[in-house]
Design the sequence.
């Protein structure tokens, strides 16, 4: 019996999956709003839900079709939680990512892709037709991991969003980092220069600085809490947008 229990316990420990903390065995595929070069493994999938202001919920499913290629869809809206009228997003979001260079001891991983899913409420005015936080659109990103008092990952990318009805069609840049704090917790920081959102229609030219925390809460389960737009880059933000995220990663 003891041998059986030991075998089962060892098997469960070997199967523990998560992306947060020093014990994380999965690559984070996103920082907060922006993609990394991290990938799902072939036959892995993640299911996530993002809870934001105005009773908003955004659900997404992503699948690792190959070790270097993943595909996903997402859909959501506002008023889903609470008494307000439900207003769904006009279209589902789609995302695809291809890693073109694997990470080595000296060079970062590099990925390219497309993601049409913006974040937070959709702004339906004729002169806007965009999400509060624009989708990445076409992107290229590099990611590098280091062993520094645990795990440290650095990320930098460039992207071109197709949400340009507001007249701001510029390429933009972003950088970010994730640092483990113990076995199951990580802290994230992300700065979007938002060059494509600085005409004061929505963005005020300060860029978007976001902070996040990720907790591996069990087999494949991750819980996250974000403080977004700390720079108050929009007129209606007093402190920061508080967002809750839940993600589950499994295998086929």
Sequence:
């Amino acid at each position: 019996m003891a041998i059986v229990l030991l075998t089962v316990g060892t098997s469960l420990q070997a199967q523990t999956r998560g992306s947060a903390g020093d014990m994380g065995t999965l690559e984070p595929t996103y920082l907060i709003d922006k993609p990394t070069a991290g990938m799902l493994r072939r036959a892995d999938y993640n299911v996530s839900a993002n809870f934001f202001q105005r009773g908003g919920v955004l659900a997404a499913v992503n699948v690792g079709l190959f070790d270097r290629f993943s595909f996903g869809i997402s859909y959501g809206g506002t008023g889903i939680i609470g008494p307000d009228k439900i207003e769904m997003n006009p279209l589902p979001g789609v995302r695809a990512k291809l890693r073109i260079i694997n990470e080595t001891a000296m060079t970062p991983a590099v990925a390219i892709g497309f993601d049409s899913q913006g974040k937070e409420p959709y702004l339906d005015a004729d002169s806007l037709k965009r999400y509060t936080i624009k989708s990445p659109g076409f992107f290229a990103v590099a990611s590098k991991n280091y062993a520094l008092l645990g795990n440290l990952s650095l990320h930098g990318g460039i992207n071109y969003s197709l949400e340009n009805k507001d007249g701001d069609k510029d390429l933009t840049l972003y950088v970010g980092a994730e640092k483990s704090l113990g076995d199951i917790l990580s802290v994230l920081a992300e700065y979007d220069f938002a060059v494509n959102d600085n005409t004061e229609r929505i963005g005020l030219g300060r860029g978007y600085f976001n902070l996040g925390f990720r907790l591996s809460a069990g087999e494949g389960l991750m819980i996250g809490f974000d403080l977004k737009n700390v720079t108050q880059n929009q007129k209606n933000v007093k402190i920061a947008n508080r967002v809750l995220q839940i993600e589950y990663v499994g295998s086929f």
